[in-house]
Amino acid sequence: MKLTWKKFNLIESLKKFFGFTAPFYQEVTLAGQRFIFREIALSDIRGLLALEKEVYAGELPWSKTAFVVELKNLAPHRYVLLERGGEIVGFVGARLHAEDCHVTNIAVHPHFQGQGIGSFMLRDIFQYAKENKSQQITLEVRISNLDAQRLYRRFGFVSCNIKKNYYTENNEDAVDMIVKMEDLSW
Ligand SMILES: CC(C)(COP(=O)(O)OP(=O)(O)OC[C@H]1O[C@@H](n2cnc3c(N)ncnc32)[C@H](O)[C@@H]1OP(=O)(O)O)[C@@H](O)C(=O)NCCC(=O)NCCS
Questions:
Q1: What is the separation of C-alpha 89 from the centre of its chain, rounded to a whole number of angstroms?
Q2: Which of 11, 77, 116, 117 has its CA 20 to 30 A from that of 106?
């Protein structure tokens, strides 16, 4: 049997799903502060929902079910968080689909924004995309979220499409953004 990259990814996902690989865990220093940088587990969902409430003024863009579906997804994915003193201060998620690495979510606690945490987590996703031979990284962002768009542009993302009324609760448009790995100089 020829082991294609797709089959390899599926095997890796199954190994992770059934607990045959140790979850990723690392200590990092960012802006002079120590954090634990580790893979997200289902037991983190309560903390992630609390973080969302802080980030989105009480709103929950992702429900508990949305997190469970993503974390249990058999498609290869990376969901990692940064924590300090037992509190989650940020997380990012991405899922592979064919040659696309799609960033599904990223958020940093308001007290920790503007200190390089979002950039650190995005770099991790770029590394993940490279390791998995993705051709491109994509994401969508609210058209009004200019701060996030500025961050993404610094990483080489460009707008490629507008999805009209994508966010149903206020009919806001989404900007599709993409960066081709071949265009990266780093
Ligand atoms: C978008 C988001 C994830 C970015 O995270 P972040 O940790 O604030 O990102 P960074 O700190 O890496 O970068 C933000 C800014 O801080 C600056 N910065 C980075 N490191 C810094 C440091 N050590 N000291 C001061 N400023 C710094 C960056 O240059 C950047 O500047 P810019 O505004 O000109 O782009 C975060 O703002 C967030 O959670 N927003 C709400 C949720 C959201 O919008 N998610 C995206 C949905 S698509």
A1: 14
A2: 11
Task: Report pTM.
Answer: 0.90
Pairwise CA distance, residues 103 & 152, whole Å: 11
With a CB cutoff of 8 Å and minimum separation 6, the contacts of 88 are 44, 47, 48, 50, 51, 81, 82, 109
Q: Who's near 66: CB < 8 A, 6+ residues apart?
A: none
Ligand 1: which residues within 6 Å by Cβ?
A: 31, 55, 106-108, 113-119, 141, 145, 147-148, 150-151, 154
Contact partners, residue 125, CB within 8 Å, separation at least 6: 78, 92, 94, 101, 103, 137
Residue 77 class from Cβ within 10 Å (0-12 exposed, 13-18 middle, 19+ buried)? buried
Question: Do residues 71 and 122 lie in contact, with contact meaning Cβ atoms separated by under 8 Å?
Answer: no
How confident is the model over 141-186, as pLDDT tens digits?
Answer: 999 999 999 999 999 999 999 999 999 989 999 999 999 999 988 7
Catalytic residue among 140, 166, 167, 169: 140
| Nearest of 115, 96, 93 to residue 104 by alpha carbon | 93
